[in-house]
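Incident review: delayed structure delivery

Summary: a single-chain prediction request sat in the queue longer than the usual turnaround. Root cause was a stuck worker, restarted by the on-call engineer. No data loss occurred. The affected request and its eventual output are reproduced below so the record is complete for anyone auditing the incident later.

Affected input:
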Amino acid sequence: MADRIRFQMTGWDELKRGLEQLGPELATKAGKSAIRAGAKTLAEEVKAATPVGDDNTSRSYRTKSGQSVTVDYGHMRDNIKVKMGRPKKAFNVVAYVTFGSAFWARFLEYGTVKMMARPFAKPAFDNATVLMLDKIKSQLGVSMERLARKYGRR
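Output delivered after worker restart:
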């Protein structure tokens, strides 16, 4: 049987009414700020759950021309970043938590043919869900108040 998390959040109706009063452009601005804050919360949780080794992270290889190249991708934890994406619809907001150039994070999370999966990002996401929603809600309220004062709405 699957574990279920049950929680209740209040105050979203008031936020929705406030966003409607601001109008679509200002509501989108407030939403960007709130979603970015929620994504940063998730990134912090994923960073805390990310395994880190003390191995040397630089690798050398030869190109087709015979030139020796050394690349240092760094540790997985150092590559975790929040990026704002381009939404498919107007007045939507998209944010990503990405591992950047740490391509091997996918191998660790999902496994390979020769290696079992050792997920760390999905459990961190599950643990951070309530924290993210709280952060989004609080930041949305703060952003709405700031924009309402700045543009004289409410």
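Verification: The first strand starts at residue 58 and ends at 62.
Action items: add queue-age alerting; document worker restart procedure.
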